[in-house]
Write a structure and sequence with these properties.
Blueprint (H helix, E strand, L loop, with lengths): L53 H7 L14 E4 H7 L5 E2 L1 H6 L10 E4 L9 E2 L3 E2 L1 H9 L3 E2 L1
Parallel strand pairs: 1-3, 2-4, 3-5, 4-6
């Protein structure tokens, strides 16, 4: 049974703090792990030390690899995807594409690509279209606005 006198802290959770700077016999006396003289060895030092000028500016800039464009890329859709998602004579807009789950959101800019034969007449509104896709849509009797 658990009693107050039998409670002990978890093993390793309690550690004895080292008494730093208490003479040569302690093993951490004299300079107390701070090396020789100078600002870093003194009380209130270290934090006040700062690089000056251009050196400081360069050190503050985050060093990140690669490149991330600030402009979002267009979501690309193939004519095959349009053919399966829309019926004959369907009107294709960004919001319709989002409703049918072809693109992630209604705000995304969309580009239609591909040059396969379309078997359906589709009307595209407010979408970017490649030259090959435009030719295939118009050949099937559709239009791009």
């Amino acid at each position: 049974m658990l009693k107050l006198h039998s409670l002990k802290p978890k093993k390793g959770s309690k550690s004895v703090s080292r008494r730093i700077g208490r003479g040569p016999g302690s093993g951490r006396g004299k300079t107390a792990g701070k090396g020789g003289k100078g600002q870093k060895a003194r009380t209130g030092g270290r934090k006040g030390l700062r690089a000056l000028g251009m050196k400081m500016i360069i050190r503050r800039i985050p060093k990140l690899r690669g490149f991330k464009s600030q402009y979002a890329k267009d979501e690309t859709i193939t004519l095959q995807e349009l053919q399966t998602a829309f019926p004959q004579g369907g009107i294709v807009t960004r919001s319709e594409l989002a409703k049918r789950g072809v693109v992630t959101g209604a705000r995304a800019s969309v580009k239609v690509v591909g040059n396969l034969e379309l078997s359906r007449k589709l009307t595209l509104k407010g979408l970017k279209v490649s030259a090959g896709a435009k030719a295939a849509i118009e050949k099937a009797g559709g239009s791009v606005a």
